[in-house]
Design brief:
Strand content: 25-35%
Structural class: alpha/beta
Distance between the termini: 26 Å
Strand order of the largest sheet: 1-2-3-4-5-6-7
Order of helices and strands: EEEEHEHEHHE
Radius of gyration: 14 Å
Number of helices: 4
Shape: globular
């Protein structure tokens, strides 16, 4: 959607049940960041393609693995096990979890264990003021 002076921004449609969803990738000076936004299972293939080889994948982590979150939320969000699968399939270098609910915040160890079943790269939780690159 944008390309100028080495900065390239790419976007593809995600899927968040009946709400609009967009997945973004930003490439600049040999580095890349992909932002999942809120997506459900129907957006996973698009996210995996656009995130391929990203240095950082920022993934919204709003639910726990089934059945530990309200069932209706799984039609809107991606479970930790799937976050790990997508991160591994896209071969991303690092994962940053954002859009954290209170349940997620209270279950960080379980969340990381679930992701680690398929993704072995660094996993970090977003917080106010966090800087990921100098």
């Amino acid at each position: 959607i944008f390309s100028e002076d080495g900065l390239r921004i790419t976007a593809v449609a995600g899927h968040h049940r009946d709400a609009p969803a967009v997945i973004y990738r930003v490439d600049y000076k040999g580095k890349s960041i992909t932002f999942s936004g809120d997506i459900d299972a129907h957006g996973h293939a698009a996210l995996t393609r656009i995130a391929k080889g990203s240095d950082l994948l920022v993934f919204n982590a709003a639910v726990l693995d089934p059945p530990d979150s309200p069932p209706a939320l799984y039609a809107l969000h991606t479970a930790p096990g799937d976050i790990g699968n997508i991160s591994a399939a896209a071969d991303v270098s690092s994962l940053l979890l954002s859009h954290l609910s209170r349940d997620i915040d209270e279950s960080r160890d379980a969340l990381v264990q679930s992701i680690r079943r398929s993704y072995q790269g660094p996993v970090q939780f977003a917080e106010d003021g966090l800087r990921v690159w100098p």
